[in-house]
Amino acid sequence: MSQIAFWGAVELGLVYAFVAVGVFLAFRVLDFPDLTVDGSFPLGAAVTAVLIIAGVNPWLAAAVAMVAGATAGIVTALLNVRFKILNLLASILTMIALFSVNLRVMGKPNVALINADTMLSPFYGLGLRDFYVRPLFVGILVLVAVVLVWRFLESDAGLAMRATGANARMARAQGVDTSRQIYLGMAISNALVAFGGALFAQTNGFADVTSGVGTIVVGLAAVIIGETLFGARGILIALVGCVFGSILYRIAIQVALSTDTLGLQASDLNFVTAVLVTVALILPRLRRRGAA
Amino acid sequence: MIKLENIQVVFGKGTPLQKQALNGVSLTIEEGSFVTVIGSNGAGKSTLLGVLAGDVLPSGGRVTIGSTDVTRKGTAARAGLVARVFQDPLTGSCGALSIEENLALAARRGERRGLTPALGSRRREHFRERIAELNLGLENRMRDRMDLLSGGQRQAVSLVMATLAGSEVLLLDEHTAALDPGMAEFIMNLTQKIVSERKLTTLMVTHSMRQALDFGHRTVMLHGGETVLDVAGDSRKTLQVEDLIAMFRRIRGQTLDDDALLIG
């Protein structure tokens, strides 16, 4: 694997770290199996791309993308909490609706950002080569996000959210409005995912309506790989696990696809993903049996 | 003071399974008094507790806790007034959170939860002291996950959790029923100590007639959603478990007779 390919994989892993942290919030903290992310990731990309082309500041464009993502999360939460639709189904409904929404936002299936100013533009040409600048820039943003989410989950408010996912009856007895926690959690989760989409558009130079397909699998893969490698030892470790899980997932994919002896090609990506996630799921079980 | 006025609760209204769980129950509990509630299965004990906790909203009547009318308030909205220990140790605390995180959660019961770190050093120290009072050695395991504890240990921690924030009433829902006899005794003694030290207004639902008479100042027996016995003071002191059993038999016998009449 070339250096450029390696750092490209790291960069993509860091972009998807936002998805991983969002998925962690929904699946692990709130215990809400949320597939909205397949729609909110391209939504973030679409909103950012369209706004940047309209001349809006790229940072502001990313912020608006987060608001759009949060709204998508709130819609899913609304369907589930207010209208009692099964959580998984509620998220699938939002997800397919978002496909049309994303097409409307962009007006076409694909928007290119070539030559447009992005969040990264000021950092190119400062002496560092481009394929270092991107992962470094995204990495710093990931660090900020992880610290913020970590501090939140260890605050009084975050504890209420964790209790909602772990034991809703107990949470209510402690005065936690569990419905509100689900709204809030789904909003934060999908805002993070949409921000990941916004970064994806800005680092790759395009937004595509199909780029969301399988986002949930990639996010879950990262969470599970992180858990397998780091174990369950507190919130910060779990969040760091998500980030490294996401990076390792991308590197593993890159290695699998670039190793000639395996004879894999780009179209085998989904199969490789399934195998990777399966291995990550089976490993802890094997390890436990070995210890017993 | 806790006041239940003419409480009506009907489950499955309008269906063939319609059941009048509580039929005009009225109960006033003076501040600082400890009331025990007994009754057979289906008598309405759990429903009564649910009405006080907010899990069950009555179709008729009024619920007042302290000076607040909470008749239409849900569990979370009235949590600031109600502390509670559940029958199932797994329900009352969060297995996935650590002991100290459970305590931090309970310490803010009914209050606004902001972005302050849940476990600052001062809070940590306070929680540690409160847990050390249990003499179970749990003060050295504050960061352990709650699901590593035994049922009895979890109930003991739940009792501490119930007293971390102020409340108008403490509800105990057969909180020793899931424990072995030794641990049940430990938890009951602990309950007694905490309730008397903190002068808590307490309502304890129990299956055990022994417990119902040995603890508290007043005993209420429910049957078929109605109060059939309400004793306190001297007449309660002379009451024996045998008397209660006899009373149970009589009530049951009556219903049997009624059925026989209906069939005849």
Averaged pLDDT of chain B, please? Answer: 90
How many distinct beta strands of chain B? 10
Number of strands of chain A: 2
**Element-level helix/strand string of chain B:** EEEHEEEHHHHEHEHEEHH
Gap from first CA to last CA of chain B: 47 Å
Number of helices of chain B: 9
| Amount of helix of chain A | over 70%
Strand order of the largest sheet of chain B: 6-7-8-3-9-10
Over the alpha carbons, how many angstroms does the gyration radius of chain A reach?
Answer: 19 Å
- Structural class of chain A comes to mainly alpha
Short note summarizing the structure:
The complex is a heterodimer of chains A (292) and B (264). Helices cover 75% and strands 2% of the residues of chain A.
Characterization of the model:
The complex is a heterodimer of chains A (292) and B (264). By secondary structure, chain A is mostly helical. Chain A contains 11 helices and 2 strands; from the N terminus they run ααααβααααβααα. Chain A has helices spanning 3-29, 37-53, 58-81, 87-106, 130-153, 156-166, 168-173, 178-204, 215-230, 235-258, 269-291, and strands at 110-112, 206-208. Chain A has a two-stranded antiparallel sheet. With 264 residues, chain B is an alpha/beta fold. Chain B contains 9 helices and 10 strands. Chain B has helices at residues 45-53, 89-92, 99-107, 121-132, 151-164, 181-198, 209-214, 233-237, 241-263, and strands at residues 2-11, 19-29, 34-38, 60-65, 68-69, 82-85, 169-173, 202-205, 218-223, 226-232. Chain B has a 6-stranded mixed sheet, sandwiched between helices. The longest helix of chain B is centred in the C-terminal third of the chain and has 23 residues, at 241-263. Chain A binds chain B through residues 151-152, 154-160, 162-163, 166-167, 169-178, and chain B through 53, 74-77, 79-80, 82, 84, 86, 90-97, 101, 104-106, 108-111, 113-119.
